[in-house]
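It is worth pausing here to work through a concrete case rather than discussing structure prediction in the abstract. The textbook approach is simple: state the sequence, then state the predicted structure, then interpret. We follow exactly that order.
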Amino acid sequence: MMRLLFKIIDRIDLYVERALSLWHRQRLARCGAGALIRKPRKIHGGQHIHVGVDFDAFPGLRIEAIDRHLDKRFTPRIEIGDRVSINYDCHIGCVNKVIIGNDVLLASRVYISDHAHGAPDYRDIGTPPSLRKVYSKGPVVVEDGAWIGEGACILPGVRVGRHAIVGANSVVTRDVPPFSIVGGCPARLIKALSPVADSGASTSP
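Step two, the predicted structure:
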């Protein structure tokens, strides 16, 4: 009897989750069919966020397209491709542009940002961090088929090449070549891979 009750509760919870996900999807500029954005989630600036089909986000997603900070205005754009999967407690922040390609996998606690508090030349270092203006060094691009490991940080101006693998807890400060493995703080090349000719997918060394 209790097993049946738990199944009914699970089914109700799933329906509620899908209904809430649908409501959040309607707040985005574009969201393809089959998207599921699980609670809890925080979506800011949905009018600047474009999402493809079969998007799957686990609980704790924080995605922010920020069009104003202090007295500065921005024109952010976040583009997420088809069949992207984002695990628990990930944070994507944008004042410029963040592009995530198709079939990308983000493990838990991944941080992606195209901006930071404070001028790149540190001329405002004497200002409290929360009062420094926000600057972007350039867009962030994660190309098709990339896999970003748990706890990794992808910083402004970085391009992660297609089918690249970023190791857990890496801090990525420069471009990652396609079909490569990087890791560390700052992330460095660990191994170059070779594409599989007949499938277009990643590889053995």
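Step three, interpretation. The longest strand covers residues 61-65. DSSP finds one helix and 24 strands in the chain.
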